[in-house]
Design goal:
6,7-dimethyl-8-ribityllumazine synthase activity, 5 helices, Rossmann fold, 16% strand, single chain, 162 residues, alpha/beta, 4-stranded parallel β-sheet
């Protein structure tokens, strides 16, 4: 059974002055769109202004770490936090394991390279049904949209540890 959400937020955060970058993969676009929309909705609920949310794309989840680095260093160095969003769904080969592990480590390491919060917005699911449920699309599975969690985590990390 999956845990719903990141738990109780420890303070009331005002995101009205934050600039947030979202860079998302284009693979699994139906799921990605729901995650991005959930993330943006949550950011706005913390007061982040729509004009301060910058959304860009890259081909797939494997490209997210490099695209995130270039997004921040060369395109939008003014952002306070970046949320790379991708979806990996296991197939019948080892491809899933290699990419999941590589992207996870690269995103984690980016935080230290860039000295900036980089939120882990990567779904790694065994089935498409799991991904749909975690994107809030399959309500029969009674899951929530994980994009909302990433938006809340972005505001907290950008403000609490600035």
């Amino acid at each position: 059974m999956a845990v719903k959400g990141l738990g109780q937020i420890d303070a009331k955060y005002d995101g009205s002055k934050l600039k947030v970058g979202i860079i998302h993969a284009r693979w699994n676009d139906k799921i990605i769109a729901a995650l991005v929309n959930g993330c943006i909705s949550k950011l706005k609920s913390f007061g982040v202004l729509e004009e301060n949310i910058i959304v860009e794309t890259c081909p797939g989840s494997f490209e997210l770490p490099y695209a995130t680095k270039r997004f921040y260093e060369h395109l939008h160095p003014e952002v306070d936090v970046v949320i790379p969003i991708g979806v990996l769904i296991k197939g019948s080969t080892m491809h899933f394991e290699y990419i999941s592990e590589s992207v996870t480590h690269a995103i984690m390491n980016l935080q230290f390279q860039l000295n900036k919060p980089i939120i882990f917005g990567l779904l790694t699911c065994l089935t498409e049904e799991q991904a749909l449920a975690r994107a809030g699309i399959d309500e029969a599975k009674s899951m929530h949209n994980h994009g909302e969690d990433w938006g809340a985590a972005a505001v907290e990390m950008a403000l609490k540890y600035e």
